[in-house]
C-alpha cells in the first residue's frame, strides 16, 4: 500500500464527525461552493487541488483572503503532476506547498484555457488537442491582470496535524 494511503487509513474513525458540511462551517468562504468544469482536459487532479487550496487559504484567514487558484498553473507548470491526460493530486498538493500556485478563475493570472463547453461527454479529439497545448508560462496569461506571475504565487502547508486542527 502506498505510504500516503496507509497514513490516511490509520486515522481513527471515532475522531470524525457523523455529518459535516463545509459550507456551513465556513460561510465566509464562497469558493467552497464552486464546482468547476474541467472540460476537454483530463485535469480532475489539478482542478480538485486548486479548489482545495483556494478553500484552505480562505479558511485559514477566516475569509479575509479569497482567491481562486489556477488549475492551469498546475497542469502546465508542474512537470511531475501530469497534464491534460490525468495526473497525481498528491504531487499537485506538494507543488502548491513548494512552488506556489497563481490565481485563476476568470479574472486571475492564469485563467483556465480549455473548452468547458465541449459537450458531455467531451469528444476524445478535444482531449488529444489539449494534451498538445500545455506550456508553462511564467507570466500571467490574462492581459488585464495587473500582478506579476511570481508575486501572485500562493503557498500552502501540507501537514496532517494542521488540517486536523482546522476541521475541529
UniProtKB/TrEMBL annotation:
The keyword Membrane does not apply. GO terms for biological process: proteolysis. Residues 16-167 form the Peptidase C1A papain C-terminal domain. GO terms for molecular function: cysteine-type peptidase activity. Keywords: Hydrolase, Protease, Thiol protease. PROSITE patterns: THIOL_PROTEASE_CYS. Belongs to the peptidase C1 family. This is Peptidase C1A papain C-terminal domain-containing protein. The lineage of its organism: Eukaryota, Metazoa, Ecdysozoa, Nematoda, Chromadorea.
